[in-house]
Amino acid sequence: MAVLLLLSCTEKRQERVVTPYGSVLDSVETSEGFDLHEIQHSGQMILATISGPQTYYDYHGKQLGTQYLLVQRLADKLGVGIRVEVCRDSLELCAKFAEGQVDIVAWPTPGNIEVSKDKPLLAAELEGWYKPEMIDEVRKEEKDLLTVQRVKRHVFSPMLDKKGGIISHYDKLFMQYSQPIRWDWRLMAAQCYQESTFDPKAVSFAGAKGLMQIMPGTADLLGLPRDKMYDPEQNIAAAAKYLGQLEGKLSDIKDRVERTNFILASYNGGIHHIRDAMALAQRDGKNPHRWRDVSEYVLKLATPKYYNDPIVKHGYMRGSETVDYVAKIRQRHQGYMGVKTPHLGFHPSQPRKADKRKNKYDI
Asked: Which entry of 77, 201, 215, 323 is 20 to 30 Å from 97 by CA?
């Protein structure tokens, strides 16, 4: 299977023009078309594609897909970035192509690379650059990213001192920062082990860093300086803040145990994909607020029948990893439940004697 790249044949390019009355899309006339030099001058190539494992998808903040990675190679050669326009289907792709809104349209199809005669410079660049073996190369690159090179980290024991009741070197931090969001600190510890195996220097291929594997863009939104992402306390504090934000966004799920499953799933797979799965479950008469029901649709978002469904807004998802992520954290949390919470002295309101009553927020 090869990739068909179609270059827009129109001599008009849609640009957003700012006026005193707001911004509008306008067609900018060019005497020679928006060819290679214009693309390089603008610093951006606009790609239209559809969601899918062979075309384009977002995975933990990393853009993947065979066709996308191929176009990324071309963009790197040209010294430009890529802006992706994800379309619902091939009809929308063709419309964007015909209207001159994009530079390249990409989807899997038999055949060779075809280019428009109206962009001779870019056509010549593509024809001289593309080799059929590139398809296998980018597929191998993607497979490597998703397997052995996914997270670089040291692997530590899931429990530092079982006899002494110590899960990790960071127990005090989990206890401190789990309190404002009313989480059991042992659940946060279980999540941390799943994310990084308690390695504060862990880094993923997508750029997620630290104990709780926070993406740089997420760190910016949480107020975590990028040069502090490996700092254990600041990383855990930012993760707790993010978990609290997800809790607010999922407040329609009233059962707290269930809501926590959805929070964990959203932390891993993205809340938009989880909302897509919830919408599918509700449409099919399942309970959209019960993880057992929704996890079935998280898995189904890896198949075209479901990620191409009109009710789905965010396309393809590698759902098996997310379902496994939630299950493993829950299983490890159960194993940690026997670890008691000692008095640590940094919360004035915390009782000095162990409170034997069940914490109503332990989940």
From this structure: 77
Q: Rounded to whole angstroms, how far apart are CA atoms 331 and 336?
A: 9
Give CA–CA dist 114/126, Å, rounded: 9
Give the pairing type, strands 44-50 and 104-109.
parallel
- Judging by beta carbons within 10 Å of its beta carbon (0-12, 13-18, 19+), is residue 331 exposed, middle or buried? exposed
pTM, whole model, 2 decimals? 0.76
Instruction: Specify the amino acid at residue 165.
Output: G
Q: Biggest alpha carbon distance in the chain?
A: 81
- Alpha helix (H) residue ranges in the chain: 36-42, 66-78, 90-98, 120-129, 134-146, 171-178, 185-196, 216-222, 232-249, 256-269, 271-283, 291-300, 304-307, 319-336
**Of the candidates 267, 277, 266, which has an alpha carbon nearest to the alpha carbon of residue 214?**
267
For 122-137, the DSSP string reads HHHHHHHH--TTHHHH
Condensed to tens digits (0 to 9), the pLDDT of residues 20-72 reads 434 444 444 443 568 898 999 999 989 989 899 888 998 877 888 888 999 99
Q: For residues 90 and 170, what is the distance between their CA atoms, to the nearest angstrom?
A: 50
